[in-house]
Design goal:
alpha+beta; 2 strands; 37% helix; extended
């Protein structure tokens, strides 16, 4: 298995989102307004489909909280969240569910 980095950036969004959703999202970035719940669902669905098409089984989100530093050198703190795309077979009697 080969580890790879793919970024769902503006280019990927333009290629996978309906034009009106992409435009509203970009406008929200400029104004700071929240995206609508309907647009959030469309964006999440497009992101998931894009990632699965690339063979993704997991993903990470690296971010910098807006609150002040937490004692790290330079006062900057970052965080990394890992998650996975999992489809478990819940009908199995096994304690560890098969995929």
């Amino acid at each position: 298995t080969k580890a790879q980095t793919n970024i769902y950036d503006d280019r990927a969004m333009a290629a996978t989102l309906p034009a009106d959703v992409h435009q509203r999202f970009k406008e929200c970035l400029k104004t700071g307004a929240p995206t609508s719940p309907d647009d959030q669902k469309v964006i999440a669905g497009a992101l998931f489909k894009w990632a699965r098409k690339l063979g993704a089984t997991s993903f990470a989100h690296w971010f910098f909280p807006l609150r002040g530093g937490g004692g790290a050198i330079g006062g900057s703190v970052s965080a990394l969240k890992y998650d996975a795309f999992v489809d478990l077979c819940w009908s199995s009697d096994s304690a560890i569910k098969p995929f």
